[in-house]
Write a sequence for this structure.
């Protein structure tokens, strides 16, 4: 079992721990907050100081050099979804969902990323078990009309892994 402990009395002491099912053998793994186990259980992607990192089973940490939160894995472990802050056309900060491809690098040797959403705040993205859909929360419809209230009213959406066919499921 893994869990994150966010302490209100120590701003930079947030950490991810593991513990046995019986509640014994608690171990501090890394400094960080939001995280996700890979489907194979061999790696954890996590956020530490707003930077995304991957911890493998040997304790090696790879800094992905990305500003992001709420990471999650694709079923084949080749992609990571995450939310990242953006500034919209009205100079307001919003959260947008991005897709990181671990199997593709650009000419500078950095992993390829693609922004999948563009309007409102979009968070908590997860792949479907078969990897053909992404489910996420968005306040895009309310945010457009009521930007000061939109931060609190999220609806459920789906989209394809390439960001197309975005559909609202809840009302």
């Amino acid at each position: 079992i893994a869990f994150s402990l966010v302490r209100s009395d120590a701003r930079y002491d947030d950490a991810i721990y593991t513990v046995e099912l019986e509640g014994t053998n608690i171990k501090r793994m890394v400094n960080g907050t939001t995280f996700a186990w890979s489907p194979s259980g061999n790696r954890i992607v996590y956020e530490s100081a707003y930077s995304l990192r991957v911890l493998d089973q040997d304790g090696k940490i790879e800094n992905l050099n990305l500003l992001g939160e709420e990471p999650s894995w694709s079923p084949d472990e080749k992609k990571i979804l995450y939310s990242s802050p953006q500034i919209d056309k009205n100079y307001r900060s919003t959260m947008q969902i991005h897709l990181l491809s671990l199997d593709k690098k650009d000419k500078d040797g950095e992993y390829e990323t693609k922004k999948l959403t563009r309007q409102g705040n979009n968070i908590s993205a997860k792949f479907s078990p078969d990897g053909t859909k992404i489910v996420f929360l968005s306040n895009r419809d309310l945010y457009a009309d009521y930007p000061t209230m939109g931060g609190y009213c999220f609806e459920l959406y789906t989209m394809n892994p390439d960001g197309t066919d975005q559909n609202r499921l809840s009302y």
Summary: The two ends are 35 Å apart (CA to CA). Residues 140-145 form the longest helix (6 residues). The helical segments are 140-145. The chain is about 5% helix and 50% strand.
